Amino acid sequence: MTCRRIAILISGRGSNMVSLIEAARGADFPGEIALVLSNRPDAGGLERARAAGIEALAIDHKAYSTRESFEQALDAALRERAIDFICLAGFMRVLTSWFVGRWEGRMINIHPSLLPLFRGTHTHRRALEEGVLVHGCTVHFVVPELDAGPIVAQAAVPVVPGDTEDSLAVRVLAQEHLLYPQALRMICEGRARLDGGRVVFAEGWSADGALRSPR
User: Fold this and answer.
1) Which residues are (6R)-10-formyltetrahydrofolate-binding (predicted)?
2) Distances (CA, A) of 68 to 107, 160, 171
3) Do 132 and 159 meet the contact criterion of CB atoms below 8 Å apart?
4) Could you confirm whether 111 is annotated as catalytic?
5) Half-sphere exposure of 76 (CA within 13 A, CB side)
6) Helical pair 15-24 and 44-51, crossing angle rounded to 10 deg
7) What is the pTM of this model?
8) φ/ψ (deg, to 5) at 6
9) Residues 188, 189, 191, 195: is their CA dihedral positive or negative?
10) Which domains does the chain have, with CATH numbers?
11) Is the dihedral of CA 207, 26, 190, 84 positive or negative?
């Protein structure tokens, strides 16, 4: 099986980045984290990547006069390093249709809600305001419309009485760290692929059981 060269794009401390790096260290993982790239030179995740022996590069979006010129520099850096696949991990830039089109079917993101619920920001606050009893996270392919791409994997957590944004965020983040490497492995192994705007899975899974809240 071909080992995919993966780039992780970050803007901050990179907690999901760390979970991907740790998973990719496994001898049987079908991908290599070849690059960590940030639009912020002061992003804490860059040093964490260097400490793990991974090339870490900053391309400061503020140094470019337009969004397009920044993305052209981003695209050139990725292609110079023969990157096969991109994982967005807290990359706080809305990407243009041009960049998304260049990497169509080869870029995924993790979002802290059960999409299509609560696209955008402040997902935990909105979940609490809406009174949902189940919340979670989603890995999806990136499309030009924000947080609207085909879904690869989801994990759910209960919302319990007394939850705050912070307490709910902690439980969701713990699931993100488990879900993102699992989804990336499935894609690299060809067990989940994009076909006609939907994710097609190579194998089924059990439909038994359910998360119930309250339980």
Assistant:
1) 67, 109
2) 18, 43, 36
3) yes
4) yes
5) 7
6) 20
7) 0.94
8) -115, 135
9) positive
10) 5-201 (3.40.50.170)
11) positive
Do 35 and 54 contact (CB within 8 A), yes or no? yes
**Binding-site residues from annotation for (6R)-10-formyltetrahydrofolate:** 67, 109
Q: At 125, is the secondary structure helix, strand, or coil?
A: helix
- Residue 62 gets which letter from DSSP? G
Residue 42, classified by CB atoms within 10 Å of its CB into exposed (0-12), middle (13-18) or buried (19+), is exposed
Please give the sequence-ordered ranges of beta strands (E in DSSP) within the chain, or none if there are none: 4-10, 31-38, 56-58, 85-88, 107-111, 134-141, 151-158, 192-195, 198-201
pLDDT in tens, the chain (215 residues): 568 999 999 999 999 999 999 999 999 999 999 999 999 999 999 999 999 999 999 999 999 999 999 999 999 999 999 999 999 999 999 999 999 999 999 999 999 999 999 999 999 999 999 999 999 999 999 999 999 999 999 999 999 999 999 999 999 999 999 999 999 999 999 999 998 889 999 888 777 777 777 77
